[in-house]
Amino acid sequence: MILNVFKILVPDGVIIWDVDRYIINNGIKLSYYGFLYTVSFLLSIYILKKLHRTNFETEDNLIFIIIMAISSIIGGRLGFVFFYHLEEFKHNLEDVVKIWQGGLSSHGSALGIVAGVFWFSRFKKFRYLYFLDKAFLLTLLAGFFIRLGNFFNSEKIGKKTNGDWGVIFRNSAYANEIRHPIQLYESMICLILFIFFLRLNNRVRNGYLTVFIVFSLFTLRYFNMFFFGENIIIEQNLNFTFALFSLTFFVVLKK
């Protein structure tokens, strides 16, 4: 049963966002975040099949996407622990595996995907850089849906704003404040980059697509985080590091 799908009021141009985080909440619970993540998973399988110029088995495509999803979650959780909350988890190691309580790092997910694709390529004896390019292209698509999920969940909220594009997130700690919907900003960044690099897929290969995606994404995220405005030092350092590393990788590829 769908409950409270759209409770949106727009007085004076400001959106009041009061949406139930669950698209289904009748014994079985299905959040918008989980639903959108599943949509990105299924779309990735379809798009990957279309991207391949050679005839890979459908089973290989499915295994590849599953490995991406698992490595993204494991890397994201470990990144959340080591980058942001190491001191807290030192004394509660059992909480590290409780991913259902929230807490994933996009930077950790990126590192997890790099490792997962490497394992997949070695196991299946496929070209690593070829699949790394495909992985990061599909990551942009997943990022679009995941940030939409964050918006529906009223989480990862930006700083105060007086702009007409501001949002009042009723189901958050800022229930009476107009805030930047930075989830939507980043979601649109991911979608635009996905469409752009999808068109370049057959012209930019062998790791170069990965370089351009990582550099573009984390550079734009660096500037988007200024709309977050609170406790962004670690996040900004990671964005800068990833963008810089992509340039270093570019030099390695050129040599």
From TrEMBL:
<dbReference type="GO" id="GO:0008961">
    <property type="term" value="F:phosphatidylglycerol-prolipoprotein diacylglyceryl transferase activity"/>
</dbReference>
<feature type="transmembrane region" description="Helical">
    <location>
        <begin position="30"/>
        <end position="49"/>
    </location>
</feature>
<keyword id="KW-0472">Membrane</keyword>
<feature type="transmembrane region" description="Helical">
    <location>
        <begin position="207"/>
        <end position="227"/>
    </location>
</feature>
<feature type="transmembrane region" description="Helical">
    <location>
        <begin position="233"/>
        <end position="253"/>
    </location>
</feature>
<keyword id="KW-1133">Transmembrane helix</keyword>
<dbReference type="InterPro" id="IPR001640">
    <property type="entry name" value="Lgt"/>
</dbReference>
<comment type="similarity">
    <text>Belongs to the Lgt family.</text>
</comment>
<feature type="transmembrane region" description="Helical">
    <location>
        <begin position="61"/>
        <end position="84"/>
    </location>
</feature>
<keyword id="KW-0808">Transferase</keyword>
<protein>
    <submittedName>
        <fullName>Prolipoprotein diacylglyceryl transferase</fullName>
        <ecNumber>2.5.1.145</ecNumber>
    </submittedName>
</protein>
<keyword id="KW-0812">Transmembrane</keyword>
<feature type="transmembrane region" description="Helical">
    <location>
        <begin position="104"/>
        <end position="121"/>
    </location>
</feature>
<keyword id="KW-1003">Cell membrane</keyword>
<dbReference type="Pfam" id="PF01790">
    <property type="entry name" value="LGT"/>
</dbReference>
<feature type="transmembrane region" description="Helical">
    <location>
        <begin position="182"/>
        <end position="200"/>
    </location>
</feature>
<feature type="transmembrane region" description="Helical">
    <location>
        <begin position="128"/>
        <end position="146"/>
    </location>
</feature>
